[in-house]
From TrEMBL:
Organism: Neobacillus piezotolerans
Name of the protein in question: Sugar ABC transporter permease
PROSITE patterns in the cross-refs: ABC_TM1 (PS50928)
UniProt membrane topology term: Multi-pass membrane protein
Stored InterPro entries: ABC_transporter_permease (IPR051393), MetI-like (IPR000515), MetI-like_sf (IPR035906)
């Protein structure tokens, strides 16, 4: 028994060490620095909750937070709807299902910066060309306004993550017993009724996982935001991660940026854990 216990901890030790060095220790140091006037080189003096108090009166941070929340809500809904729809398509016994799975998942393999530059070219060059050719003014000057920048980010994120979320839904859809679906069909249930009363309740755990992943990824988005809009025009499409980065490395206000990061971490963690709790409770009720 002791040998098994020793081998268990020996194998687990590298993982725990890496987790401590990369996640836990930087988090603790970051929380400490947020209570100081650290400038990136010298720690400075302890100033208590001054940085945290200033955050809540920082208009740029609050605007970025509001934009991030709106973007996350819309993106989460669209990504999960598209991902579930794609999963239903590729599990419907069509001949090209394996090929379609590969095609739908491929956007997730492209890096965030590259993806942002690709869609920037599409929105600014392709859309502008189509708009000029067809006389559609709404397609011209795309990304030049807050509204089009917002939807540009939503489209980019939905295109990238839908295939990844599709894989999660596929795993649960393929576990739905065909006998139940066949019995419901014999009893006269329509495709919509089979989807609503049999398929969706049985894949409820997939919603918990997918919601958590999409929520965390959309809230902490940075690469795509940087390469697609760079926060423009006039920082109106700037998300929280970019706003914190600018505070730290452009304004060189490290401790203040760290306080923003701690608050952002608490907000995302609270929302994520609440979502998991609600969905888990719903799974039990179903």
């Amino acid at each position: 028994m002791r040998t098994k216990d020793l081998s268990y901890w020996l194998f687990l030790a590298p993982v725990l060490l890496a987790l401590s060095m990369v996640v836990i220790l930087p988090l603790c140091l970051g929380i400490y620095y947020s209570f100081t006037n650290w400038n990136g080189i010298e720690t400075g003096g302890f100033i208590g909750f001054e940085n945290y108090i200033n955050v809540f009166s920082d208009k740029k941070f609050m605007d970025a937070m509001w934009f991030t929340v709106k973007f996350s809500v819309v993106s989460i809904i669209l990504i999960n709807l598209i991902g579930l729809s794609l999963a239903l398509i590729v599990t419907s016994r069509i001949k090209s299902s394996n090929f379609l799975r590969t095609i739908f998942f491929m956007p997730n393999l492209i890096g965030g910066l590259i993806l942002g530059f690709i869609w920037q070219f599409i929105f600014m060059k392709v859309f502008d060309g189509i708009g000029s050719l067809m006389g559609v003014e709404s397609l011209q000057g795309w990304l030049s306004t807050t509204e089009t920048g917002f939807w540009g980010l939503v489209i980019l994120m939905s295109w990238q993550m839908s295939g990844y979320i599709m894989v999660i839904y596929i795993a649960y859809l393929e576990g739905v017993p065909h006998e139940l679906l066949e019995a419901a069909e014999i009893d006269g249930a329509s495709p919509f009724q089979r989807l609503r009363y049999i398929v969706l309740p049985l894949v409820a755990p997939a919603f918990t996982v997918s919601m958590f992943l999409t929520l965390s990824n959309t809230f902490k988005l940075y690469d795509q935001n940087l390469s697609l809009t760079a926060g423009g025009p006039y920082n109106s499409t700037q998300m929280v991660a970019m706003e914190i980065f600018k505070t730290a490395f452009v304004e060189l206000n490290m401790s203040y940026a760290q306080a923003k990061a701690v608050i952002f971490f608490i907000i995302v963690a609270a929302i994520s854990l609440t979502q998991v709790y609600i969905n888990k409770k719903r799974e039990v009720e179903l």
